[in-house]
Specification:
The termini are far apart. The protein has 219 residues and is an alpha+beta fold. The protein is built from three helices and 14 strands.
């Protein structure tokens, strides 16, 4: 006989035992098979790591900052090392006056999937106020910032965005690195290509990039 509560416990999502507590999301399974990241008791929190995205539109070099977001960097490196980002298409480009980003990281290409786990926010505290915002609630995510996309508090997964023009956002998105100059040139090329029109909107400012941008591999 199974003791009371055992079956229920077995149905609970898996959670790593370290400080990052990467948590399985059974209701939102991984777009590609991937195990939970390692979660050591002492998460590396110093120094930087270089990652090169080779894309169909040109190279994008990233510098990941462990001090800013150690759990995020640890997860991103885990996904990159296991090929999760390889041959994935950046699904969203925005061209609003105050939001200029390219969003990537979903192997399904829909913007709805991730790695089958989530983890906590590591929100920035040093972003400047957006000029003219007297409330202090809107911050500058500057050109060249690398940040995590999310679907609400503590829902980080695999999707991330690359800022190609200063953007106005609430500080609700983990900043974990920067884009190098060749990478910004690649982003400018993608942005200049515009966004695919739809029957409903012939001149969209948010949608699928006209220039298909595929991450061929992340190393």
């Amino acid at each position: 006989m199974v003791p009371t509560g055992v079956a229920a416990a077995e149905d609970q999502p898996g959670v790593t035992k370290g400080p990052c507590q990467y948590t399985e999301t059974p209701d939102d399974p991984a777009a590609r098979p991937i195990r939970l990241p390692r979660d050591p008791a002492h998460t590396p929190s110093h120094g930087t790591v270089k990652v090169k995205l080779r894309t169909s539109q040109g190279p994008i070099g990233l510098t990941l900052d462990r001090a800013k977001a150690p759990c995020t960097v640890q997860s991103f490196l885990h996904l990159a090392r296991h090929g999760f980002y390889d041959v994935t298409t950046c699904h969203r480009l925005t061209a609003y006056p105050t939001l200029k980003v390219l969003q990537c990281g979903d192997p399904s290409g829909t913007g709805e999937k991730g790695p089958g786990y989530r983890y906590k926010d590591e929100l920035p505290t040093d972003l400047p106020d957006w000029p003219g915002d007297t409330t202090g609630t809107r911050k500058v995510y500057a050109r060249g910032v690398l940040a995590m996309a999310n679907a609400g508090p503590d829902t980080n997964g695999s999707q991330f965005f690359l800022v190609y023009g200063d953007s106005r956002l609430r500080p609700n998105y983990t900043v974990f690195g920067t884009v190098d100059l060749p990478g910004l040139s690649t982003l400018d090329t993608v942005a200049a290509g515009g966004i695919e029109p739809t029957p409903e909107d012939p001149a969209p400012v948010d949608g699928t990039p006209t220039l298909t941008t595929t991450i061929l591999h992340a190393r």
